[in-house]
Write a structure and sequence with these properties.
It is a single chain. With 115 residues, the protein is mainly beta. The protein contains no helices and 15 strands. It has a six-stranded mixed sheet with strand order 3-6-9-12-14-15, with no helix packed on it. Strands 1-4-7-10-13 form a five-stranded parallel sheet, with no helix packed on it. A four-stranded parallel sheet has the order 2-5-8-11, with no helix packed on it. A hairpin with a 7-residue loop joins strand 14 and strand 15. The protein is globular and about 30 Å long. The N and C termini lie far apart (38 Å).
C-alpha cells in the first residue's frame, strides 16, 4: 500500500514529480499541469461545499509549479504557471500570475523573484 492517494479521476500532466510522496492527496477533480514538483504532505482537495466538476470545484495547477511540503490547495482554485507554494501554506484564492504563495489566505501572495 502507498501512503499517498491520487484519485483515478485526477488529471496529471507529464513529468510531474512527487518527491517523498508520503501523505500526498490528489482529489478527483484536480488538474496538475506538466513539469510540476510536489513535495510530501500536499493536499489538492475540495472544501466539501460542492461535489464534482459540474459545480466548479476543480483545483488546477499550472505548468512548472512547485508545491512545498504540507501545503493545501483547497476549493475552486487556479494556480498559474511558474507559481511557487511554500511549505505549510494554504491556498484558497486564485493565483493568476507567477507568484510565491507563503502562509495562509489571499494576503500571502507576492510576485515571484528569479533565483
Amino acid at each position: 500500500l502507498s501512503p499517498s492517494r491520487s484519485h483515478p479521476g485526477a488529471t496529471i500532466g507529464k513529468y510531474v514529480v512527487v518527491d517523498h510522496g508520503t501523505g500526498v492527496v490528489i482529489g478527483e477533480t484536480a488538474v496538475v499541469g506538466d513539469n510540476v514538483l510536489i513535495f510530501q504532505g500536499v493536499t489538492l482537495g475540495g472544501t466539501g461545499h460542492n461535489v464534482g466538476h459540474k459545480n466548479g470545484t476543480t483545483r488546477t495547477i499550472g505548468p512548472n509549479c512547485i508545491i512545498g511540503c504540507n501545503a493545501c490547495v483547497l476549493g475552486n482554485i487556479t494556480v498559474a504557471h511558474d507559481c511557487r507554494i511554500g511549505a505549510n501554506s494554504v491556498v484558497n484564492s486564485q493565483c493568476h500570475q507567477p507568484l510565491l504563495h507563503a502562509g495562509r489566505g489571499p494576503g500571502a501572495l507576492r510576485q515571484a523573484q528569479d533565483d
